[in-house]
């Protein structure tokens, strides 16, 4: 093809790469004709290419996703020759990045699990001139809770603390709520305030057979632990044996012992208020006396756990009762207010109620998981695991009720009137009374025998009346007493 303007014997130009391999020839012409030179091939030599090491131009960004949702990290780099890329991962808790098999594209996409939470990812770009590494990008994997520690079933004695523990993993960190399913129920219910991985409380016999589980929750879901079963054994009880001795306590703190050991009294000592009640320790080697203002005096192996004589009371104290293990006691006021000391657990009171008659005493259930309050009208109020078996609250009584005693298994109780009338409820068997006798002094207290097959009535003049298998070991009826008898207790 003719080259425009190329009409000299010398043709000069500046070639480009596109001219490589082109052929050139000269055509000479006059009036006589035309002749053409040999063709020559033109070769253009390329300059060596420019080179540079990789330089990261786009850094990967940290990501937050839910487990099971795909996630992508993207990075880019410039360099000559064009760099290759290799993604690397550093698992949570590690300090070393390692290559990810097959992750050799500018964008790395995969589906994470909870195990990837906290991992970091970086891209390494490489060519013949060197390498460059991107900034690391963190991966946060949100995951539903997974229980990592299951609670274990427990066996304890009533009144002894028990602890259940559970744990779960998840992101965000899950909260926990303990639930309980009482024995005989089919429904778990939340336990108020039980929102820590460890749940500790002091069970009563009524908690036997209950099940406990922990529910863990976060924004991604919920997980529930296995249910742990709680077995509650009744506190150790002294083996049933017929009461063969007893003590009588007077209002001045005098103690009269029949068939047993004398351990001391307050007779002849100064105290701020009269004695109103007494209770013996489970091993019968000690007892407490309590005054109407709440002062408590221990004797023998009875321990002092506290008193109320420095408290302003709404009503006088009328009763004291020990826990089955002797590690605590209750005081009860005439208004039904209940005060617990030592290991005695509070289960409720009638202190806020308007009563038809004042309270005369409190009796603890054999397992220590509850108690009864009894009024002068024979009204019975049950708390904790104490079962209600009846009362005389709706009867017209010849004389007020003065005391109460339970059967050994807690399945019944006796009420005693000031005239010696005895009322039995539940599995308590009636063995007789003085209701049809003319008494010199009113009955003030009742004490059941250890096997529940009998009982004793104590009168204000020290008279003792026995029924069933309760033995008679003497009385103070023939003595000149400085103060009336207020209680009879086992010795």
> Sheet with the most strands?
7 strands, mixed
Helix content: under 10%
Report how far the terminal alpha carbons are from each other: 139 Å
Mean pLDDT: 92
Number of helices: 0
Low-confidence stretches: 237-243
How many extended strands? 41
Work out the radius of gyration.
48 Å
Oligomer: single chain
Shape: rod-shaped
Give your account of this protein's structure.
By secondary structure, the chain is an all-beta fold. Strands 6, 9, 10, 12, 13, 14 and 17 form a 7-stranded mixed beta sheet that branches. Strand 30 and strand 31 (338-342) form a beta hairpin. The protein is rod-shaped, with a radius of gyration of 48 Å. Residues 237-243 have low confidence and may be disordered.
What's the structural blueprint in terms of helices and strands?
Blueprint: E1 23-24, E2 27-30, E3 33-36, E4 40-41, E5 52-58, E6 63-66, E7 71-74, E8 76-80, E9 84-90, E10 98-99, E11 107-110, E12 120-127, E13 130-133, E14 137-149, E15 154-157, E16 162-165, E17 167-171, E18 175-181, E19 189-190, E20 198-201, E21 211-218, E22 221-224, E23 228-233, E24 246-250, E25 255-258, E26 275-280, E27 286-291, E28 296-300, E29 317-322, E30 328-333, E31 338-342, E32 359-364, E33 370-375, E34 380-384, E35 401-406, E36 412-417, E37 422-426, E38 443-448, E39 454-459, E40 464-468, E41 485-490
Parallel strand pairs: 6-14, 15-23
Antiparallel strand pairs: 1-4, 2-3, 5-8, 7-11, 9-10, 9-12, 12-13, 12-14, 14-17, 16-20, 18-19, 18-21, 21-22, 21-23, 24-25, 24-41, 26-27, 27-28, 29-30, 30-31, 32-33, 33-34, 35-36, 36-37, 38-39, 39-40
């Amino acid at each position: 093809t003719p080259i425009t303007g190329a009409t000299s014997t010398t043709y000069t130009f500046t070639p480009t790469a596109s001219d490589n391999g082109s052929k050139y020839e000269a055509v000479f012409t006059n009036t006589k004709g035309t002749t053409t030179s040999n063709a020559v091939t033109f070769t253009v030599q390329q300059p060596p290419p420019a080179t540079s090491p990789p330089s990261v131009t786009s850094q990967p960004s940290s990501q937050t996703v839910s487990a099971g949702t795909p996630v992508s990290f993207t990075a880019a780099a410039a360099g000559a020759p064009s760099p290759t890329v290799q993604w690397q991962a550093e698992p949570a808790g590690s300090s070393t990045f390692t290559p990810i098999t097959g992750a050799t594209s500018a964008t790395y996409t995969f589906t994470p699990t909870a195990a990837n939470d906290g991992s970091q990812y970086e891209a390494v770009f490489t060519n013949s001139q060197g390498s460059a590494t991107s900034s690391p990008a963190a991966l946060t994997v949100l995951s539903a809770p997974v229980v990592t520690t299951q609670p274990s079933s427990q066996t304890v004695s009533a009144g002894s603390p028990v602890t259940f523990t559970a744990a779960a993993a998840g992101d965000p960190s899950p909260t926990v709520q303990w639930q309980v399913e009482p024995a005989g129920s089919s429904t778990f219910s939340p336990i108020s305030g039980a929102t820590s991985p460890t749940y500790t409380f002091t069970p009563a016999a009524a908690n036997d057979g209950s099940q406990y589980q922990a529910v863990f929750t976060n924004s991604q879901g919920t997980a529930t632990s296995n249910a742990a079963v709680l077995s509650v054994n009744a506190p150790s009880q002294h083996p049933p044996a017929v009461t063969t001795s007893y003590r009588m306590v007077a209002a001045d703190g005098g103690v009269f012992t029949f068939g047993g050991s004398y351990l001391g009294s307050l007779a002849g000592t100064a105290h701020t208020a009269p004695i109103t009640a007494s209770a013996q320790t489970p091993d019968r080697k000690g007892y407490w006396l309590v005054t109407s203002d709440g002062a408590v005096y221990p004797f023998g192996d009875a321990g002092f756990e506290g008193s109320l004589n420095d408290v302003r009371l709404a009503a006088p104290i009328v009763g004291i009762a020990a826990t089955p293990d002797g590690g605590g006691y209750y005081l009860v006021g005439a208004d039904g207010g209940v005060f617990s000391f030592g290991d005695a657990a509070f289960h409720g009171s009638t202190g806020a109620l308007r009563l038809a008659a004042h309270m005369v005493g409190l009796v603890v259930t054999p397992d220590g998981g509850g108690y009864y309050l009894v009024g002068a009208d024979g009204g019975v109020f049950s708390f904790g695991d104490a079962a209600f078996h009846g009362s005389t609250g709706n009867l017209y009584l010849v004389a007020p009720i003065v005391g109460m005693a339970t059967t050994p298994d807690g399945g019944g109780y006796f009420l005693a009137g000031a005239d010696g009338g005895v009322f039995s409820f539940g599995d308590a068997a009636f063995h007789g009374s003085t209701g049809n006798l003319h008494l010199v002094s009113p009955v003030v207290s009742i004490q059941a025998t250890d096997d529940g097959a009998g009982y004793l009535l104590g009168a204000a003049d020290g008279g003792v009346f026995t029924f069933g298998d309760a033995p008679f070991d003497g009385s103070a009826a023939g003595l000149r007493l400085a103060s009336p008898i207020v209680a009879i207790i086992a010795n």
